[in-house]
């Protein structure tokens, strides 16, 4: 009976004595990925290891880094580093420039003195490719291309208007009137020009009127002499 109780106690301690927990860590390819792990240094720093598999009953499967609590004693690759303060119990694993093949289960095993006192933490690490946005800035270019073998030609359209004599061209003031008197002078000149135009356009009519007047006066003078 006593042996049965001792065996039951031993099995209970064997399967429940170790503290095991699981955490998930997600990272991106090319970035540093930190897998957390801490323990209490109440009794002083102690040794620990990191392995690439679930924590076994002892030590680490496929170990990648070891520390004695003060410094790193073994290191599989420089890509696996312990950048935390080891003496304060920070034994977090940093994977430098993570790759997709770094994905998997990692075991953090802290060796606590005593039977079945080790602290075990299994981490599920997932390293994914960085998401690249498919949206790109829109650039608009304006180009003219011609079909192979063809030649491009440019056409210039020129409009020709009939020439106008300078005397008949409309006159416009280049600048506004700076003084009201200037505007009045310009208006008067335009009126005088419009009045004198008929006489300039028909000079023969004035000549005929003058000759007729002279002939009429001469005829009246002759009649007056004859009557007297």
Automatic annotation (TrEMBL):
<dbReference type="GO" id="GO:0043277">
    <property type="term" value="P:apoptotic cell clearance"/>
</dbReference>
<dbReference type="InterPro" id="IPR013106">
    <property type="entry name" value="Ig_V-set"/>
</dbReference>
<keyword id="KW-0732">Signal</keyword>
<keyword id="KW-1015">Disulfide bond</keyword>
<feature type="domain" description="Ig-like">
    <location>
        <begin position="30"/>
        <end position="133"/>
    </location>
</feature>
<dbReference type="InterPro" id="IPR036179">
    <property type="entry name" value="Ig-like_dom_sf"/>
</dbReference>
<keyword id="KW-0812">Transmembrane</keyword>
<dbReference type="InterPro" id="IPR003599">
    <property type="entry name" value="Ig_sub"/>
</dbReference>
<dbReference type="Pfam" id="PF07686">
    <property type="entry name" value="V-set"/>
</dbReference>
<keyword id="KW-0325">Glycoprotein</keyword>
<protein>
    <submittedName>
        <fullName>HAVR1 protein</fullName>
    </submittedName>
</protein>
<feature type="transmembrane region" description="Helical">
    <location>
        <begin position="206"/>
        <end position="227"/>
    </location>
</feature>
<dbReference type="GO" id="GO:0016020">
    <property type="term" value="C:membrane"/>
</dbReference>
<keyword id="KW-0393">Immunoglobulin domain</keyword>
<keyword id="KW-0472">Membrane</keyword>
<dbReference type="GO" id="GO:0001786">
    <property type="term" value="F:phosphatidylserine binding"/>
</dbReference>
<dbReference type="InterPro" id="IPR007110">
    <property type="entry name" value="Ig-like_dom"/>
</dbReference>
<dbReference type="GO" id="GO:0060097">
    <property type="term" value="P:cytoskeletal rearrangement involved in phagocytosis, engulfment"/>
</dbReference>
<comment type="similarity">
    <text>Belongs to the immunoglobulin superfamily. TIM family.</text>
</comment>
<dbReference type="InterPro" id="IPR013783">
    <property type="entry name" value="Ig-like_fold"/>
</dbReference>
<keyword id="KW-1133">Transmembrane helix</keyword>
<feature type="signal peptide">
    <location>
        <begin position="1"/>
        <end position="21"/>
    </location>
</feature>
<feature type="region of interest" description="Disordered">
    <location>
        <begin position="137"/>
        <end position="157"/>
    </location>
</feature>
């Amino acid at each position: 009976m006593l042996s049965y109780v001792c065996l039951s106690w031993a099995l209970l301690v064997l399967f429940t004595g170790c503290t095991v927990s699981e955490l998930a860590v997600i990272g991106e390819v090319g970035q540093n990925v930190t897998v957390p792990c801490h323990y209490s240094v109440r009794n002083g720093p102690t040794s620990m290891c990191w392995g690439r598999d679930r924590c076994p009953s002892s030590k680490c499967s496929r170990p990648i880094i070891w520390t004695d609590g003060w410094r790193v004693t073994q290191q599989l690759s420089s890509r696996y580093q312990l950048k935390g303060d080891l003496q304060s119990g920070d034994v977090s694993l940093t994977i430098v420039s993570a790759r997709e093949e770094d994905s998997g289960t990692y075991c953090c095993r802290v060796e606590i003195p005593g039977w079945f006192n080790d602290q075990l933490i299994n981490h599920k690490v997932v390293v994914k490719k960085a998401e690249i946005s498919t949206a790109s800035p829109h650039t608009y270019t304006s180009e003219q291309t011609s079909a192979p073998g063809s030649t491009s030609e440019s056409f210039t359209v020129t409009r020709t208007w009939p020439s106008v004599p300078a005397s008949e061209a409309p006159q416009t003031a280049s600048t506004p009137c700076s003084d009201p008197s200037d505007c009045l002078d310009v208006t008067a000149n335009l009126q005088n020009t419009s009045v004198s135009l008929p006489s300039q356009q028909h000079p023969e009519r004035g000549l005929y009127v003058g000759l007729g007047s002279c002939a009429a006066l001469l005829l009246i003078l002759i009649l007056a002499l004859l009557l007297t």
